[in-house]
Amino acid sequence: MYTLAFMLALNASTNLATNTEASASSVGVLPANPIHQLRESEIAERLAQTEAKRLQLELQIAKAKHAIAQLKINDNKPSVIAQELTGYELLGIVKVGERRDILLRLGEQVIRLQDGIAGPMQLTANIENNWVRLQRYGRFRDLPIVQGW
């Protein structure tokens, strides 16, 4: 024989299970069982992984945009060498035999360079068609040759 407390507990658990199944079927949700719980946890895990990847990609994009912006800022500033090359003035070109010398002025200083040969401070001058190209460490400046020289 069952005791009264056991009968009441059995009745309550049966009513609870019936109510859960009825409410689940009326809403369209399956009752919770281990397979459904496992699927839900797998879906939640995949969703979290997808969100993490999306955030990583957004971070990479933001870093790339920041790096590009830094490059643009640095490109706007002329280098020290480029600024120095703007100070040179072409005084003349002297040709003696096969040798051609270029005379330049930087402030009060007169500099004499041979065509195509690196001079002091790795400064090179090359005579082109209508200009003299000054070059130093990959930076250059073209000085026009005035007609009549």
From TrEMBL:
Residues 45-74 form a coiled coil. It comes from Pseudidiomarina donghaiensis. Residues 1-17 form the signal peptide. Keywords: Coiled coil, Signal. This is Type IV pilus biogenesis protein PilP.
